[in-house]
Amino acid sequence: MRNLYRLKLFIAPLIFLIISCSPTPTIKNLSEAHQEFLKLCQEEYKLNITLTPLENTLWIYLPITDGIIDIKATGYGIKTSDEGAPGFNLNYIDGEFKNEEFQITYDISDAMKYPKDLGYGTAYQEKFTLVYQSIFQAIQRTYLNIEKIPGEREFADQARNIKRERMLDGYIRRTKPPDFFVIVFADIKNGIEVKAIFNFEDYKKEMGQALAMDESPKRKINEVSGNKNMIGDEKGEYLEIREITWPEFLTKQIVHRINYAYGESNKKVAEQPEETILETIALVVKIYNFENYQSILLHNLRTEKNLSFNKTLIADYNIKDLNPKAKLHTLIFDDQGQISAETVRELE
Question: What is the pTM of this model?
Answer without folding.
Answer: 0.77
